[in-house]
Write a structure and sequence with these properties.
The protein is of the alpha+beta class. The chain has one domain (about 1-105): Pantoate--beta-alanine Ligase, Chain: A,domain 2, CATH 3.30.1300. It has helices at about 1-40, 45-55, 55-60; strands spanning about 65-70, 75-85, 90-105. It has a three-stranded antiparallel β-sheet. Helix 1 (about 1-40) packs antiparallel against helix 2 (about 45-55). This is Pilus assembly protein.
Length: about 110
């Protein structure tokens, strides 16, 4: 019975890490899009810096951030790898992405 309980606990922990990774990606993308429009002349550099700055170190190493403007709307996409059991040790081959946008009202 103990191995079954341990297996269930490991699976639950892995699902918690999956959900947390989704949350981190969405939050980092939101911060990146906001930084692109909030900082005057910030643009893609401020977007990437803000997005990766919001991530814990374990997720930051494998993060991919994309920032682009389209007709006064900044889009930020953050892609993160899902860790296996412990952040920083190993990662699954698939990625989780979070996307956000912010309107540059002063730039119009």
């Amino acid at each position: 019975m103990l191995p079954l309980i341990l297996l269930v606990l490991v699976l639950l922990w892995q699902f918690v890490l999956l959900g947390y990774t989704f949350s981190l990606a969405a939050h980092a993308a939101d911060r990146g899009a906001r930084a692109a429009v909030a900082l005057r002349g910030g643009g893609p550099g401020a977007c990437r810096t803000a997005a990766t700055g919001e991530l814990p170190a374990s997720w930051r190493t494998a993060a991919t951030t994309t920032c682009a403007a389209d007709s006064g709307l900044w889009h930020a996409t953050v892609r993160l790898k899902v860790p296996v059991l412990f952040p920083g040790a190993a990662a699954f081959p698939w990625t989780v992405s979070g996307t956000a946008g912010a309107v540059d009202e002063e730039g119009r």
